[in-house]
Amino acid sequence: MTEKRRGKATITEVAKLAGVSTSTAGRVLGDYGYASEEIRLKVRRSAERLGYRPNQIARSMITGRTRTIGVVAGDIQSPFYAGIMRGISDVARQAGFGVILTNSDESAELESEAVKLLLGKQVDGLIVAPSEMGDAAHLRRAVRDGIPVVQVDRVVKGLKAASVTIDNRAAARQAVAMLLAAGHRRVGILAELEHRSRSEIRELMAQVRSGNTDVRAMFPTWPRFLGYLDAHEEAGIPVDFDLVARVGTYSSAQARRLVAELLSGPSRPSALFTADGLMTASAVAAVADLGLSIPGELSIIGFDDLDWMSFYGRGITAVAQPLTEIGETAARLMLEMLGGGRKALRDLVLPAALNLRGSVEAPPR
Amino acid sequence: MTEKRRGKATITEVAKLAGVSTSTAGRVLGDYGYASEEIRLKVRRSAERLGYRPNQIARSMITGRTRTIGVVAGDIQSPFYAGIMRGISDVARQAGFGVILTNSDESAELESEAVKLLLGKQVDGLIVAPSEMGDAAHLRRAVRDGIPVVQVDRVVKGLKAASVTIDNRAAARQAVAMLLAAGHRRVGILAELEHRSRSEIRELMAQVRSGNTDVRAMFPTWPRFLGYLDAHEEAGIPVDFDLVARVGTYSSAQARRLVAELLSGPSRPSALFTADGLMTASAVAAVADLGLSIPGELSIIGFDDLDWMSFYGRGITAVAQPLTEIGETAARLMLEMLGGGRKALRDLVLPAALNLRGSVEAPPR
User: Fold this and answer.
1) Per-residue pLDDT for B271 more than 70?
2) Which whole-number Å values give the CA distances from A178 to A192, A318, A355, B81, B352, in the listed order?
3) Which domains are seen in chain A, by residue range?
4) B99 has which bridge partners?
5) CA of B114 to nearest chain A CA: how many angstroms apart?
6) Is A68 in contact with B284 (Cβ distance < 8 A)?
7) Residue in A22, A68, A110 closest to B117 by CB
8) Left if phi > 0, otherwise alpha if psi is -120 to 50, otherwise beta: which for B179?
9) What is the 3-state secondary structure (H, E, C) of chain B?
10) pLDDT surpasses 50 at B249
11) Across the interface, which of B22, B82, B306 has its CB nearest the CB of A77?
12) What's the complex ipTM?
């Protein structure tokens, strides 16, 4: 806990230059406790002359770097973040870093509070799954203040931070292409997507294809939906928008109802692509409610691979994100940034796997 | 951030009484930075005379309360802790408290590191699922230093801390009693239990029944096993120890193998009680591997209710712990302790529910 940055003066040196005690210097630079205006000035000038930013001094005064990484998860009740945390913790621990975790509930406001809390706890850097990819003023401020930030799962537009993501669009395209290749012509999608009109979706698709829109700065369900459209286009099969079941809020009950409607209606799909683990569980539950069989009456591929998918019926074919690896990679990038070794920010995109099981077969005649 | 406890002296008063500067008093009581032995003595004596415990002064010196609760989970990859965290966060947030979470991986050493990390981050109190119920020196030290501690899921023997648990033994007894009442005479149990001989188990049972052993200070699988024994005794059905499948390490693959052996052997059980969610998943997977049907060829009741259990086959009957409520209650106890309103430590035991689904029927003839 007393690690010093090489080639940098200690708080004692700053205090000496200012002609005050070490604890006074610490108080001034840490911005707590009493010190006269005159002393404040002296200490700050000494700190400047020694080339230190006040915040770093204050932080390093007592224990050097705090050797702590702060993490903001979108939803710690999701196995997704649990897997990522596993990876972060393992790498951090090996390097002698502690990890403290907070939760944003996918709310920009709570995320901003969480970042404030973590910075108040003097973490050395932040690993964040940004809940809002546009403004994110709190993250921009943190970056401006010199806090290293690594983003996971998605990125804030134009934020000067590193990132670890997967290619959601390509993985979804591959999954849907497999359903189409099995002979399905009516492939539905169940996804948490805020409503957009067909013309808005066409426009979005055009923007993405022109390279003007970074899909990593979208909530991951969107690139997955784009992958669904891609696969149809590649196969020359028009998308029937009646097969697109959108879920406004992230609710299992609502998703279950939507699937029941989709499967009971006149234009029933013969296959379904579910865009995350909760959607897959909801779809499978709805199918069970209706007494239909998988894959006999409905083929399914899900995004995100959960434990029960390996033993449910003949198994559910699923896209597996490399969760632990995402976490490990994010932690390594963070350590790299804290070490100061590499200057360029890195954006890493990891591959996802399609785990083949027994939930896909040719459509019934 | 400058909240003061009513009716207590400030650090300034301690310093004044000791005849030293406030920052020197803070340094001594916070245990950092230099101070001569003579000064240390003076400051500590003043603190004692004013009735303060040193750490609290040091902590309140800089920013008063930090309005943060630190949580140590046993395994954040488990839905169990995720549910508890949800409850803690919701209550804490409403009271204007932030929550930071760390993980012990059920290791006493890592738990000790986590506690150190959280106290270094100046949390106001700790909510912990103790990974080790005997020594736990780091928790005893925290309590001695005046840090309020609330334990969840299990308790450290004789620790002066509050607790929120469920009655694991009663809930397991109820579940196994239901299997016995359905007519099963050969009810197996799959549980993560370190090995003990039958005579050791008999001795443990005798100790528990004599009231000399607090089952809350055991890893929860043990009281669940005791509940399994209770139910047999109440029904007057002898326990066949060949039906007790122990899992030394917490591994799904090993549990799956054990169940496969149990079900393929000559003395196959007609029903199975699985003592946690991972054990239930492993058992169900093993049953699927063997092509057996639930409940036709094997009845099952699991401890812990996971999402897939509601839609797997005819549904898996399961004991549901009130996870969110455990977390909410723990947070409320913590706020109560921090508020200083109630002096007595509270040990709350919440009821669990048995969610009846379609995995139990009479044994095949």
Assistant:
1) yes
2) 22, 11, 12, 37, 44
3) 11-63 (1.10.260), 68-166+323-350 (3.40.50.2300), 168-321 (3.40.50.2300)
4) B69
5) 8
6) no
7) A68
8) alpha
9) CCCCCCCCCCHHHHHHHHCCCHHHHHHHHHCCCCCCHHHHHHHHHHHHHCCCCHHHHHHHHHHCCCCEEEEEECCCCCHHHHHHHHHHHHHHHHCCCEEEEEECCCCHHHHHHHHHHHHHCCCCEEEECCCCCCCCHHHHHHHHCCCCEEEECCCCCCCCCEEEEECHHHHHHHHHHHHHHCCCCCEEEEECCCCCCHHHHHHHHHHHHCCCCCHHHCCCHHHHHHHHHHHHHHHCCCCCHHHEEECCCCCHHHHHHHHHHHHHCCCCCCEEEECCHHHHHHHHHHHHHCCCCCCCCCEEEEECCCHHHHCCCCCCEEEECCHHHHHHHHHHHHHHHHHCCCCCCCEEEECCEEECCCCCCCCCC
10) yes
11) B82
12) 0.78
pLDDT in tens, B130-140: 998 888 999 99
pLDDT for residue A267: 83
* Token duo for residue A262: 């989709």
Q: Regarding beta strands B317-320 and B353-355, do their DSSP bridges make them parallel or antiparallel, or are they unpaired? A: antiparallel
Judge: A77–B66 Cβ closer than 8 Å, yes or no: no
Q: What is the pLDDT of residue B32?
A: 53
The Cα–Cα gap between A2 and A54 comes to: 18
> Among residues B121, B134, B31, B16, which one has the least CA distance to residue B67?
B121
With a cut of 50, say whether residue B58 has pLDDT above it. no
- In this prediction, residues A184-201 reach a mean pLDDT of 92
Predicted TM-score of the model (pTM): 0.81
* Residue B9 confidence (pLDDT): 63
Start-to-end Cα distance in chain A = 69
Contact A285 B310 (CB under 8 A): yes
Separation between Cα atoms, residue B275 and residue B192, nearest integer Å: 8
pLDDT beyond 50 at A6: no
**Is B62 a residue whose pLDDT tops 70?**
no
For residue B241, give both structure tokens: 């120890």
